[in-house]
Amino acid sequence: KAGVTQTPRYLIKTRGQQVTLSCSPISGHRSVSWYQQTPGQGLQFLFEYFSETQRNKGNFPGRFSGRQFSNSRSEMNVSTLELGDSALYLCASSFQGEGEKLFFGSGTQLSVL
Amino acid sequence: GENVEQHPSTLSVQEGDSAVIKCTYSDSASNYFPWYKQELGKRPQLIIDIRSNVGEKKDQRIAVTLNKTAKHFSLHITETQPEDSAVYFCAAIPNQAGTALIFGKGTTLSVSS
């Protein structure tokens, strides 16, 4: 079974731009969640999607958004990029998403200049 | 909302020694407590988890204990090996919060031979 796939692996953007990250979950998994990882703040929950619906949302500004498609693939978008958005963005999938093991992707390393 | 504190932030042990990492949580409604290991440059991977109806769980050299009254849980690694060197994250999740894991800030474990 293929693991969680995230693309692209690296991104360099400038302030004010927007960016879209993609995540393909493990086949059969319906829950996809996104986390931001930084050296200072660690792993912070962004949002979770289940069957194309946002089920939970973390404490991030509205510039951070996401969606899930009918095949469970998910995208997250960050608009009006700020320097502080530089981070590793990790996607994780699970079957049902309730108190289950999460399978993480390798992440997208975003650098905002 | 939930808050998870993790100690220590760094831990150095000799090969063969035991290592203990402690976490406290604030939300008494939390009912699922996973531990993730992240090796340098790699994705986080679940190593063990425990639910609120269980006090202790063991898997070979790794064990987790949970004290619901005191709202703390701990990871115990016995007979440490150099390949145990990594960053370890504890997490908690309130009931019906999907995959909205609240992570501790992480513990960097170094095992020297």
Notable traits:
heterodimer, A: 113 residues, mainly beta, seven-stranded mixed sheet, 11 strands, 0% helix, 53% strand, globular, B: 113 residues, six-stranded mixed sheet, five-stranded antiparallel sheet, 58% strand
General description of the model:
The complex is a heterodimer of chains A (113) and B (113). Helix content of chain A is 0%, strand content 53%. Chain A is mostly beta strands and 113 residues long. In chain A, the strands form 2 sheets. In chain A, strands 2, 4, 5, 6, 9, 10 and 11 form a 7-stranded mixed beta sheet that branches. A 4-stranded antiparallel beta sheet of chain A has the order 1-3-8-7, with no helix packed on it. The radius of gyration of chain A is 13 Å and the shape is globular. The model of chain A has no long low-confidence stretch (mean pLDDT 95). Chain B has 113 residues and is mainly β. Chain B is globular. Chain B starts with a strand and ends with a strand. The model of chain B has no long low-confidence stretch (mean pLDDT 94). The chains are: A mainly beta (113), B mainly beta (113).
Quick structural summary:
Chain A is mainly β and 113 residues long. Chain A has strands at residues 5-7, 10-13, 19-24, 31-38, 42-50, 53-57, 64-68, 74-78, 87-94, 103-104, 108-112.
